[in-house]
Amino acid sequence: MSSPKKSLHGVNYAPPRSFGTVLKANLKETLFPDDPFHEFKNEKLSIRIQKGIQYFVPIFQWLPKYNLGLFKFDLLAGITIASLAIPQGISYAKLANLPPIIGLYSSFVPPLIYAVFGSSKHLAVGTVATCSLLIAESIQEKVKPQENMQLYLSLFYTATFVSGLVQTALGVLRLGFLVDFLSHSTITGFMGGTAVIICLQQLKGILGLKHFTSHTDVVHVLRSVFENRKEWTWQCAVVGVIFLVFLQLSRYVRKKKPNLFWVSAIAPIIVVILGCLFAYLFHAEKHGIAIVGELSKGINPSSIHLLTFNPDYVYVAVKAGIITAIISLAEGIAIGRSFSIMNNEQIDGNKEMVAIGLMNIAGSFTSCYLTTGPFSKTAVNHNAGCKTQMSNVVMSLCMLLTLLFLAPLFGYTPLVALSAIIMSAMLGLIDYEKFYHLYKTDKFDFLICMVAFLGVAFISMDMGLMMSVGLALVRALLYVARPPTCKLGNITETVFRDIEQYPGVDGIQGILILKLGSPIYFPNSNYVRERILRWVRDEQSLENSKRNEVEFLLLDFGGVTSIDITGVETLFEIRKSLGAKGIKIILVNPRLGVMEKLIVTRFIDVIGKESVFLTIEDAIETCRFSLKCSSQSKREDVEIA
User: Fold this and answer.
1) How many Cβ atoms sit within 10 Å of the Cβ of residue 281?
2) What is the per-residue pLDDT across 95-152, written as a single tens digit (0 to 9) for each?
């Protein structure tokens, strides 16, 4: 095999790779950056098949190693999160204006599916307030639950089905990077804004209101609260405040003494039980305190026949499904990763997408609505000492027993107790410290966060989210369209740094060194040309004041990861403009993909291989020799004249 062609400077001029080779490499980096199949290499076919099954269906990886010692921990964790799932399930179903039993159904089937396909042993599956309200808000644009509950329920199942399809497709196609477009600032603001409007909506239950707005923004909600002040019930308010204070005290105990995490974990179920006893013994309904009402026994009925794709209504279900698919993935994967990192473990985001997507598809067929990995439940699962995904199975079995035997008892739950549970949970989602941290560290990130927060609170959830994502994308596009460039000076003979960052560094007479820090594409090529020519103009003004001239422009291409045809044409234009001024372009350390593009477009032939170097030091040494020769030639010409 012949060695690659090299110039006198040691630069690799190997023939460009074929299109297929480049495409394969780019697809691998885009879709498989973590190289998930590295363990399969150099293995026998039978071992590859076994590991392949374990990779795609993780239960086959951990179940054969399972033992009674692990089960004792998972049993405790599963029972603990089940005690949290019952009140949360009923509460979030009421938040979405669904029959409360749907919330219990949603904590039975999805956890079983996740236990089979999920890769995070800490993630506890359940419904979340944010997505519950978001789907409800979207569907109520077209159908009100009071007018047609059957159609409303069908659209909820359809939105869950669409969400599951989107999530599964993203995972199978390895498109998890799309979720990254929901920046941390956007999620922080969105969650905070959602928490505010959900808390305000709970005033309906806390005050015992019978009439309330279907809008979710702060203005409409507060207007509805005060317009219906004649319906305020002091009995509801007293009970609600007592429950809320109790729940907040339990959270305070957990914060001060983390080993007492179980206090806040069981607090919601205690509120529900006490509320049921209070409602049953004192006939709460006669005192203006509404209760959940009848909850029938039995496991999830099939809901496949309820999925609807009627053109008049399917739009709202598809819109809600797509938006909540992305939000629930961002929340679930981020939570799963954060708890895995605590234990020095790693989870595959794309596998998590498939698992969450499959459990939502299965859920839409079995009378469940959207589920993911709630932070509160996952934190409880982790703190309770879960060891494997079996804790989700235990929770599911607890929910099965509840549905078969205990569901009717929860029908006595006062609505004010559910409102207190939701409000307490939402108060924990407003991360005041994170808001302040963003303000102190990055004003633009803080602006993105506040756009999401205020947009959700005062306009609508989907508009607030889209405005924040749009602003974040504008910022990303600005980074692409206005890439960083800097002039380098030498701190030592071999160390070159940005003169703006290190103001005391020296430039090199007759040589201008610029570093480009991003790909050169059509969106930024004009800017790159103008910025380089401006650097040259400014340097010439500086050198002229010292009676020197710029003769060489060194472009450090180490940070230029790729270049398109527009970018190459820009280099030709820069060379032409500088050539007219007697300035020669020198390239330093072009990357493989960039070098291949410069070779096939013949730019290297135009500037000459002698103008490409591996290091800045080599380039400067050659340029200095040329400057010295040029200076001697000029002196000789003067002497002759």
Assistant:
1) 9
2) 899 999 999 999 999 999 999 999 888 899 999 988 998 999 899 988 999 889 999 9
* DSSP label at residue 503: T
| Torsion sign, CA atoms 435, 439, 444, 445 | negative
Q: Helix 261-282 and helix 68-95: axis angle, to 10°? A: 50
Q: Is 415 helix (H, G, I), strand (E, B) or coil?
A: helix
Residues with Cβ < 8 Å from 501, sequence gap 6 or more? Answer: 486
Q: Are 487 and 502 in contact (CB under 8 A)?
A: no
Helices 234-256/415-427 angle, 10° precision: 40
Do 579 and 607 form a contact (C-beta atoms < 8 A)?
no
pLDDT at residue 30, as a whole number: 73
Q: What is the maximum alpha-carbon separation in the chain?
A: 118
Q: Distance between CA 106 and CA 109 in Å, rounded?
A: 6
CA dist., res. 128 & res. 424, Å (int): 14
How many CA atoms are closer than 13 Å to the CA of 250, on its beta-carbon side?
19
Task: Please check the confidence at residue 15 and state whether its pLDDT lies above 50.
Answer: yes
How many whole angstroms separate alpha carbon 318 and alpha carbon 165? 11
Pairing of strands 496-498, 511-516: unpaired
The two tokens of residue 168 are 């599964």
The residue-averaged pLDDT of 210-234 equals 87
For 66, residues 6+ apart whose C-beta sits below 8 A from its C-beta are: 388, 390
Handedness of CA 593, 594, 595, 598 (dihedral sign): positive
Q: Is 7 exposed, middle or buried (0-12, 13-18, 19+ CB in 10 A)?
A: middle
Cα–Cα dist 349/336, whole Å? 9
End-to-end CA distance of the chain: 57
Q: What is the pLDDT of residues 344-384, one digit of tens each?
A: 777 778 888 999 999 999 999 999 999 998 887 888 888 88
CA proximity to 322, closest of 151, 473, 167: 167
